[in-house]
Amino acid sequence: QVQLVESGGGLVQPGGSLRLSCAASGRPGTRQTLAWFRQAPGRERELVAAMTYSGDSTYYADSVKGRFIISRDNAKRTVNLQMNNMNVEDTAVYYCNSGASWTRTTIVPGNSWGQGTQVTVSS
Question: Are strands 117-121 and 10-12 parallel, antiparallel or unpaired?
Answer without folding.
Answer: parallel
